[in-house]
Amino acid sequence: MSAAYFDGTPEQVGRIRTWCAGATGLDEAETVMVELAVSELVANAVRHSASGGRYGRIKVTVEVMPGQIVLISVTDDGPRALRPVTVPTLAAHVGDAEECGFGLRLVAALAEKWWWTGLRGGPLTVWALIDPHRDLDA
Questions:
Q1: Rg for the chain (alpha carbons), in Å?
Q2: Beta bridge partners of 118
Q3: Which residue from 29, 80, 102, 127 puts its CA 20 to 30 A from 43's CA?
Q4: CA distances for 74 relative to 38, 95, 123, angstroms
Q5: What whole-number distance in Å separates Cα of residue 3 and Cα of residue 20?
Q6: How far apart (Å, rounded) are the C-alpha atoms in residues 52 and 86?
Q7: Beta strands of the chain (E only): which ranges?
Q8: pLDDT per position as a tens digit, 27-79
């Protein structure tokens, strides 16, 4: 398993994608779904948690499991001060006009399974199991 900490800024997303791709040891074509999923999870952490605040950080882990299934996780710094505490959830319906909700839906579509751990009001870790050989058209 590989783990690294990154600044919680939108500019770090590209660096995190590159790091994740390298950490898998898979070829470029095999890492596309991993890179998409981690991008969305990092963007959510930056947008919705203290990770996106001053001195915020994000911890990212990547583990290649048997069968080249990739387990990724993104851990945030917990909720932002003076903002409502939220947890990752899929809305029942995401309207075309809404700007939130599409990223986690993309992760759910790419992942074999996704979930979160942690305590409401504290740092949260969002996990995703990605099969880089899965046919998304099937």
A1: 14
A2: 124
A3: 29
A4: 8, 26, 10
A5: 9
A6: 14
A7: 2-7, 57-65, 69-75, 113-118, 124-130
A8: 999 999 999 999 999 999 999 999 999 999 999 999 999 999 999 999 999 99
